[in-house]
Amino acid sequence: MRLPPYHLRPNKAVDRLTLVDAIKRVGSEADLRRYTYYGMGGPYLEDFRLIYELYPEMKMVCIEEKEHIYKRQRFHLPCRSGRLKLQRIDFSSFLAKYEAKDEKSIFWLDYTDLEFTNFDDFKDLLGKVGANSVVKITLRCNPRDYQDQKRQEEFREKFETVLPATFAAVPIKVRDFGLLIQEMLRIASQQALPSAVQTTFLPLSSFFYNDGSGMFTLTGVVCLRNDEAGFRKLFKSWQFANLDWGAPTEINVPNLSTKERLHLQRHLPRRKNAGKALRQSLGYLINEDQVQTEIQLQQYADFHRYFPYFIKATP
């Protein structure tokens, strides 16, 4: 199955905007000007466009290994500012040269696969970034990749050092597989930052979604252990906070017309029974039955502030 273009994946777009929301909570606008954003922007540099629009004074570095994507990135540069640099290099090589010094950073390790090298990169990065740096990692989360016995055994052998002691087999459901990957990242973070060191990795949010393939994504902050309570306080009231490695939140936004969205938006925000209330306000089903309709509309209620608009236009 051919996946939709990177910049036209609605659940991915929601995930991208939740990162922006998390960044806002990390520090004031003045503080964030001193950060550098590092990412794997894909051919359209969509996350860099968002960062540039919100924080035009923030330095940005895009890391890309493939030449044909690098050339498309040069074409899609959102600005001519020297604050955005494109580097054609694989991430492991970049990381080997990276020195944080006292710099605060925001990293998005936006992978499309699930390999042990991804966990190695994650661990190496946690050990290098400065305090108060944000690290986000996205990994493939497709349990169908591992449903025969041979692939199950290969998975166990490949990820043995980051698997929890309770691991028995790759789960069948994306939700459960996402929780397993999250636990693997938790173990990796503890290996990178054991209790003897001054810094720790505090999770801030985690999601799983499907835009043609299952994906899992985790965002956290590397902070001094003495500052952990302060970050917990900053994020405690955030709707999507996952500060204690709880189950990841699903992103599965419905397909709605612009007219439907404008209608529903008049009834939001709503704290309780939003799915039911929005179904009643529409007066019809958007899915195969009432239960699924209310689940989908609850998703819209939860993520409506992050929901992208895709518009057909004549060039």
Would you summarize the structure shown here?
The protein has 315 residues and is an alpha/beta fold.
Can you walk through the features of this model?
α4 (67-75) links the parallel β2 (59-64) and β3 (84-88). The chain has an 8-stranded mixed β-sheet, sandwiched between helices. It has 315 residues and is α/β, with parallel strands linked by helices. α6 (116-126) crosses α8 (174-192) and α11 packs across α12 (290-303). The protein is built from 12 helices and 8 strands. The longest helix has 19 residues, at 174-192. It has helices at residues 10-26, 29-32, 46-54, 67-75, 91-97, 116-126, 149-158, 174-192, 228-235, 258-265, 274-282, 290-303, and strands at residues 35-39, 59-64, 84-88, 104-110, 133-140, 199-210, 214-224, 249-251.
Helix segment count? Answer: 12
Summing up helix and strand content along with how strands pair, one would put the structural category as: alpha/beta
Gap between N and C termini, in Å? 28 Å
Secondary structure tally: strands: 8
Q: How are the strands of the largest sheet arranged?
A: 3-2-1-4-5-7-6-8
Shape type = globular
Question: What's the pLDDT, averaged over the residues?
Answer: 92
Helix content bin: 25-40%
- Radius of gyration, CA atoms, in whole angstroms: 20 Å
Stretches with pLDDT under 50, minimum 5 residues: none
Our estimate of the beta-strand percent is 15-25%
H/E element sequence:
HHEHEHEHEHEHHEEHEHHH
| Major pleated sheet | 8 strands, mixed
